[in-house]
Write a structure and sequence with these properties.
Elements (H helix, E strand, L loop, with lengths): L8 H22 L6 H21 L20 H8 L7 H11 L7 H26 L3 H12 L2 H7 L5 H16 L6 H18 L3 H17 L1 H20 L2 H21 L13 H8 L9 H6 L4 H17 L1 H20 L13 H4 L7 H10 L6 H12 L33 H15 L4 E7 L10 E8 L6 E6 L21 E5 L23 E6 L6 H4 L6 E9 L4
Helix pairs in contact: 1-9, 2-5, 3-20, 4-9, 5-6, 5-8, 5-18, 6-19, 8-9, 8-18, 9-10, 10-11, 10-16, 13-16, 15-16, 15-18
Length: about 575
């Protein structure tokens, strides 16, 4: 979705009408279920929690947020981290950017302001997910534990504390799941309208989600238009799967052996399949998604084991399997979500398990929030009705902690084997190099809110062979107090051109940041000419944990990173 649309008032007016219609349809769905005293009590309690959460969010923007929680989920170099603190790198499409243009007409929001909105939306996601899961699950206790597993997992927490639109997309997907299930009493025509509006809204944030919503829309529309045919086709579909269950063990063993052989050969077949064709632009991710030799979908349980509890992963796998067996509509939803996962996996620079290849595991975290709500709903639908010891095992599995090392268990899974951080992540949040740098600078700016920060950094669009280096400035603009970023012109002697600072930079305080880019291998960013001989104002050293891998960063000169802030005074 072109981000330029965010500046068009007509687009934002249409987006506002679409969201108002979605809210009204949702209210119409919820209303029939609050007739009994018990349901009214639950509705009132939910409303009180939502109002309390909203009141907390409406406090001073970002004032309640510890800087140690900020988690910029962006790839790139030091300039990207500075831009994130100044409200850049939203990656949320026209609707997300348009929202901030109207909320902050005088300038971009700070990262803390965006995170407060993400945290607020995550709270609404938890309430809506609980509503959906507890109505779908046959066992309310296991359903509640599934919600807890999702709400407290590192992926959800990191998304809530980031600038990514995952929390907003989660609301769309959950409302869409309600429309697809058809268990909430809304007439078929209105359900289709709701699903179409949700698909349109989600696509305005992440255009690829139009495929997921479109598949669900086709399935629901066909079943509403031809209910008898849909029921007959569903019966034939389930009958075909029943024949598989009744097939001799030798036949099923042969099929499984064939799948394993294909999986072993997939890295070599990849060179002969469409992913190698010259797909234009972003269409190459589509080519990777439909590539028959791309076995990235097999890694999904591995990624989820590093995200949610083992019991939740088992329920997700069970839900996907049940969706494939239940009927063509649910199978289409499951397959579409897996294809999107393959596209996101490719976009995270790990198309398949090629020999010698690697995957930026932490980058996949930027995409998983866009699909996890769908899988959690399928998991709730697949919760078994169990008793006794089996039910106790499910409870233990759902309460089990996540396995952060799960991404290293398969020999063929060459995940990012970076060093462990010197300190454990807070609340399970991501703790990569650029994340730590952003938190370090954010904490300094809270203590010195009128200071500008100057840093020598690499530019994301440059190549490791010929890096483009700039002196970037992060500063609070005097007219509205929001952070800005700009670049200084290159100085002939390699020093900082402080006399070229923007006119609205406060003149009394300039901080020089020795960024993580100064530790890139091969001296790609030469920070020596700009570093003063005085002791730093603030400094920290930690074990290297890159967010991306070597062919994007250019590699690191050592196993530790040192970032520091020096106080400078501009001339004149």
């Amino acid at each position: 979705m072109p981000s330029s649309w965010a500046h068009d008032p007509r687009f934002f007016a249409v987006a506002a009408v679409v969201h108002a219609a979605i809210a009204l349809l949702w209210a119409a769905q919820v209303a029939p279920f609050v007739r009994s005293p018990r349901d009214r009590a639950i509705a009132v309690a939910t409303g009180v929690v939502a109002l309390a959460w909203t009141a907390w969010w409406l406090g001073p923007a970002g004032a309640w947020l510890p800087t140690a929680w900020l988690t910029p989920l962006q790839e790139g170099f030091g300039e990207s981290a500075l831009q994130a603190l100044a409200g850049g790198n939203l990656h949320g499409g026209a609707t997300w950017e348009g929202f901030w243009l109207r909320l902050r007409p005088g300038g971009a929001p700070t990262m803390a302001e965006v995170v407060t909105v993400s945290a607020w939306l995550t709270g609404l996601d938890v309430l809506l997910l609980a509503h959906v899961v507890l109505r779908l699950a046959r066992d309310r206790v296991l359903g509640a534990l599934l919600v807890v597993a999702w709400a407290t997992c590192p992926l959800t927490l990191s998304t809530a504390m980031s600038m990514q639109p995952g929390a907003a997309v989660g609301l769309y997907l959950l409302v869409g799941a309600v429309a697809v299930t058809g268990r909430w009493g809304l007439p078929g025509g209105l359900r289709l309208l709701q699903l179409a509006l949700v698909t349109l809204a989600a696509a305005s944030m992440r255009v690829e989600l139009a495929g997921l919503g479109g598949a669900a829309l086709v399935a629901v529309a066909w079943s509403e238009r031809f209910p008898t045919r849909a029921a007959a086709l569903g019966l034939r579909w389930r009958t075909a799967w029943a024949r598989w269950d009744d097939a001799p063990r030798t036949v099923r063993a042969a099929v499984v052996a064939g799948l394993l052989a294909w999986w072993c050969a997939a890295p070599f077949l990849n060179d002969l399949t469409p992913v190698r064709l010259p797909w234009p632009g972003s269409w190459r991710w589509f080519g990777a998604a439909i590539n028959p030799a791309n076995d990235a979908w097999l890694t999904l349980p591995i990624f989820l084991l590093a995200t949610v509890s083992a019991g939740a992963v088992a329920l997700v796998v069970r839900g996907l399997w049940r969706a494939l067996r239940h009927g063509p509509g649910t199978a289409l939803l499951a397959v579409t979500s897996l294809l999107l996962f393959q596209a996101y996996y490719a976009a995270a620079h790990g198309q398949v398990f090629r020999p010698g290849g690697e995957v930026a595991v932490l980058e996949v975290w930027r995409y998983l929030p866009l699909l996890l709500p769908v899988w959690v709903v399928l998991a709730a639908w697949a919760i078994p009705a169990t008793r006794g010891a089996v039910r106790a095992l499910w409870v233990v599995a759902l309460l089990a902690p996540v396995l952060p090392e799960a991404t290293h268990v398969l020999p063929r899974f060459r995940a990012h084997r970076d060093a462990r951080t010197a300190e454990p992540p807070r609340l399970g949040l991501l703790d990569a190099d650029l994340v730590r740098q952003a938190r370090f600078v954010a904490a300094a700016l809270r203590d010195a809110p009128d200071c500008a920060v100057v840093s020598r950094v690499r530019v994301w669009s440059s190549s490791p062979e010929a890096p483009e280096v700039v002196d970037a400035v992060l500063y609070p603009a005097r007219r509205d107090g929001h952070l800005r970023t700009t670049r200084l012109p290159p100085a002939p002697d390699g020093r900082l051109a402080l006399d070229a600072l923007p006119p609205d930079v406060p003149g009394g305080c300039v901080l020089l940041l020795r960024s993580v880019d100064c530790d890139l291998a091969g001296g790609q960013v030469d920070c020596a000419p700009i570093l003063p001989t005085t002791a730093p104002w603030r400094e920290t050293t930690f074990a290297t944990r890159p967010l991306t891998f070597a062919d994007h960063t250019g590699g690191w000169a050592g196993t530790t990173q040192t970032i520091a802030l020096y106080r400078l005074v501009p001339p004149g």
